[in-house]
Amino acid sequence: MGTRPGDVDPGALLYLLNRFGSDIAKLDTLLNKQSGLLGLSGSSNDMRDLLQKRKEGDRRAGLAVEIFCYRVRKYIGSYMAALGGADAVVFTGGIGENADEVRAETCQGLQSLGVILDSDKNLETRGAEEEISAAGSPCKVWVIPTNEELLIARDTVRCIKGK
């Protein structure tokens, strides 16, 4: 997440409450505005910035990207285990549509679950609907762009019309 921590161990919350006293407002700011990619990198919650900074040797930016990819990979693996497999993995949203490095790092290690990326297709795909899995991959890998504004507009019209 950009500025939020994702999963948080309850013990960590107790530690933070103890550290900040009973200042819930500070804890709220820390957890909702200063954590995630921003907290790990110390500089940005924008993956584009972090990828550039990593190329320039910024260790914390690199760590933020690495942890982000690890966490996504962990979720894919756990959901595939819970579901008994999957037909496809879909990358979407700003990072999923545009960050080939993140897609590659995320899929690294998922080959045993049938997620096999085609490196060339992955590199060539940016912001377009494309299958980026290798030929014969048991689990397909796709990039599918979102159109959040269109969905919001449609939902608004439905609400106004009462449907």
SSE run:
HHHHHEHHHEEH
Poorly predicted spans: none
- Roughly what is the average pLDDT, rounded to an integer? 94
How many distinct beta strands? 3
Q: Give the N-terminus to C-terminus distance in angstroms.
A: 33 Å
Please estimate the helix content.
Answer: 55-70%
Largest sheet: 3 strands, mixed
- DSSP summary: helix tally: 9
Query: How much is the radius of gyration in Å?
Result: 19 Å
User: Which strand order spans the largest sheet, edge to edge or round the barrel?
Assistant: 1-3-2
Any idea what the shape is?
A: globular
The computed structural class is: mainly alpha
Relative strand content: 5-15%
Structural notes for this entry:
Helix 4 packs across helix 5 and helix 5 (59-83) crosses helix 7 (100-107). The protein has nine helices and three strands. The mean pLDDT is 94. It has a three-stranded mixed β-sheet with strand order 1-3-2. It starts with 9 loop residues before the first helix and ends with a helix. By secondary structure, it is mainly alpha-helical. Strand 2 and strand 3 form a beta hairpin.
Describe this structure in a few short sentences:
This protein is mainly α and 163 residues long. The protein has nine helices and three strands.
